[in-house]
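Fold this sequence, please.
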Amino acid sequence: MTNQIRFDDGAAYERYMGTWSQLVGEVFLDWLAPKSGWRWFDVGCGNAPLPK
């Protein structure tokens, strides 16, 4: 038996991880303090961009 968390669809992943990602994203962007008007390219992984 393995201790793996697996998701076969994006909706299940979003329900599980989406809340945490949004909380971490807000803190990260506050720390990053991006300047207004800058352009961004999200190279992360998951179902949505971090700063969404």
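Helices lie at 10-32. The chain has a mean pLDDT of 76.
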